[in-house]
Amino acid sequence: MPKPNPLRPQLDALRAIYAEVEQRALPRQCEMRTTCCHFRVTGKTPLVTRIEALLAAQGVRASGRKKLVAHPQDACPMLGVNGRCTIYAHRPFGCRTHFCAEAGGPYPRQHVADLIRRMEALDEAIGWHEGSRPFEAALEDALEELR
Ligand code: SF4
Is residue 2 part of a domain? Predict the structure, then answer.
């Protein structure tokens, strides 16, 4: 029998936060250009909480991968060669709330500040006190932990 995941309550709570983001979606016209996934082009890498990195790592593992492989154009390693996110259901909060200027721009901080605080509280609950980190580094560490 598989061992129960001790982080299950926090992972479920994070999924609930992601669902809430969808429920309070603002009008945006994302045309899936994936510009925002090209961190080195935009100069902006999403910051993620520890619990977000762990959920994203579960998405990587669910897709059959055990480690990150660099993207050929230096974009997010989760961006597939078909131009789609390979962990879409597990993608971090920043990917759900950041939109390029053409799509209408990022959600205003005050629109989601309470959800960010709830994610930070989840990190506290699992004993992580180092704050949010750049996505790739945090994801690599989370994958290591899942090994
Ligand atoms: S996780 Fe997915 S949506 Fe987010 S930057 Fe990477 S490829 Fe894009």
Answer: no
Reported pTM = 0.94
Domain presence at residue 17: yes
Residue 50 falls within a domain, yes or no?
yes
Nearest ligand 1 atom, CA 56: 1
Task: Give the C-alpha distances (Å, rounded to integers) separating 139 from 33, 112, 146.
Answer: 23, 23, 11
How far does the centroid of ligand 1 lie from the alpha carbon of residue 95, in Å? 6
User: Tell me: the pLDDT tens digits for 92-144?
Assistant: 999 999 999 999 999 999 999 999 999 999 999 999 999 999 999 999 999 99
Q: Cα of 1 to ligand 1 centre, how many Å?
A: 33
Nearest CA to ligand 1 atom 5: 37
- In the chain, the number of structural domains is 1
Q: Which domain holds residue 36?
A: 8-146
Using CA atoms, how far apart are residues 102 and 110, in angstroms rounded to an integer?
21
